[in-house]
Amino acid sequence: MLARQVLATRHEPDRLRLLLRLALAATLGGQDRHAEAFAEVQRADVLRRNLSQGDYRPATGAVDTVAATALFGLGRVTEAWPRAAAAYDACLATFGPNHYCTGKAKALLDSIDGA
Question: Is the distance from CB of 53 to CB of 85 less than 8 angstroms?
């Protein structure tokens, strides 16, 4: 995968690495490779913690959304729900109710609630 190649050459914590890890995690999750997706999102979370709030703002809620998706895919509903709720709350506060990311987090939360 191209994302893995780029990640192998860049080692400093920056927004590009964060976004690549999140994209890779989401792609793996879409392939039902939820354990690998969760491992990638854990790496992304480490990067997120090392970024300034300004660098992280465009990805607000994304780490929790992707983590909750992976956990839900693994059948770990009790762990997925708080992450999905945190993603929804963060997106709602940062972007408002009509933003794509807020809707995505809300849809995930509703799916988990329905499980």
Answer: no
33/52 Cα distance (integer angstroms): 30
70: Cα separation from own chain's centroid: 9
- For residue 114, how many other CB atoms are within 10 A of its CB? 6
What is the C-alpha to C-alpha distance for residues 39 and 57, in angstroms, rounded to an integer? 22
- The one-letter amino acid code at 45 reads D
Question: pLDDT digits over 50-105, tens only?
Answer: 887 777 777 889 999 999 999 999 999 999 999 999 999 999 999 999 999 999 99
Q: Are 81 and 109 in contact (CB under 8 A)?
A: yes
Q: Which residue has the tokens 């799916």?
A: 111
Measured from the Cβ of residue 115, the count of other Cβ atoms closer than 10 Å reads 10
Residue 36 tokens read as 């690998």
Half-sphere exposure for 94 (CA within 13 Å, toward CB) = 20
What whole-number distance in Å separates Cα of residue 11 and Cα of residue 61?
23
In terms of pTM, does the model score above 0.70?
yes
